[in-house]
Amino acid sequence: MKVVAKKVEMICVTDTKGNITPLRFRIENDDESRQVIKVDKVIDREQEKLAGNLMIVFTCQSLFNNVEKRYELKYELNTCKWMLFKI
Length: 87
Fold this sequence. Notes:
- This protein is mainly beta.
- It has one domain (about 5-85).
- The chain contains no helices and eight strands.
């Protein structure tokens, strides 16, 4: 997987236990157009510290331009920001 580290706009669901599940996100392409990606499957979720910041890392699978790909989404707990980290 290639590191892209782009900020994304996310729609997610939080259950009564506080577990976050991403549903779909919007990313800005290089030509400044926006693309909406539906998260088809959450394969794994784990916590990590990146530069001292606690993050939840989601390994997901979706269709990108009619090609099924795996990627990583990161959610930073301190700032509540989402990032497409690897694709």
